[in-house]
Design a protein that fits this description.
Layout lengths: L3 H14 L2 H19 L1 H6 L10 H17 L5 H24 L1 H7 L2 H17 L8 H20 L12 H20 L5
Helix pairs in contact: 2-4, 4-5, 5-7, 5-8, 5-9, 8-9
InterPro entries: DUF1405
Keywords: Membrane, Transmembrane, Transmembrane helix
């Protein structure tokens, strides 16, 4: 029996070397569009200068679509790759964890179908992060700095996504922890193995 990591590497190679990459990009672009729609009210209430810190998930899916497309056309960008990896891993896991932590609040304002869609689509984001390999350490450091600033703006200035609770401590701790864990995982994944 093959190890799970070996199977994943074969799946990654298959997706990126066949026309499945087009479907992957298309799904992520649809997710990006829906994400911006989802964040519409919050964006309207937030200064344009802070928008880059608000729409975390839509920017993540846009990042992975850009990273995969740039690789396919031979214009790979180490900063886009580092962003796509870290953003999809972090915000995919962050959303799934926050949906579980604040389960009662989220299920009181969302249908079961929407809750499950948000949960599993964000777990998918975390998995697709590993389509990115060969992460440049300098780019990772720069992108990591952005995510630390983003966490600061989210939990000091309150530009984090809506959380149905007055107690956002767990969401903040999860975000900061996942930034650090994501950096460590990306560093360990720097050679694509």
């Amino acid at each position: 029996m093959k190890a799970p990591s070996e199977l994943f590497f074969k799946l990654r190679e298959y997706v990126l070397t066949t026309r499945l990459w087009i479907l992957l990009v298309a799904v992520n672009l649809v997710g990006t569009a829906y994400g911006f729609y989802f964040y519409g009210d919050q964006l309207r209430e937030t200064s344009v200068l802070l928008w880059i810190f608000v729409a975390d998930s839509p920017l993540s899916t846009l990042g992975i679509a850009a990273a995969v497309t740039l690789r396919k056309i031979g214009r790979q960008n180490k900063y886009v790759d580092a962003y796509a990896f870290l953003a999809n891993l972090k915000y995919g896991l962050w959303t799934a964890i926050v949906l579980l932590i604040y389960f009662r609040g989220f299920t009181s304002i969302n249908s079961t179908g929407m809750y499950l869609f948000l949960f599993f689509s964000h777990l998918g984001m975390a998995v697709q992060a590993f389509l990115i390999e060969d992460i440049d350490l300098k780019a990772l450091a720069g992108v990591g700095g952005f995510f630390i600033v983003n966490d600061f703006f989210d939990y000091v200035f309150g530009v984090h996504p809506f959380i149905p609770s007055d107690n956002i401590v767990y969401a903040g701790l999860t975000a900061v922890s996942l930034t650090l864990i994501g950096l460590l995982v990306a560093w360990k994944n720097k050679d694509g193995k």
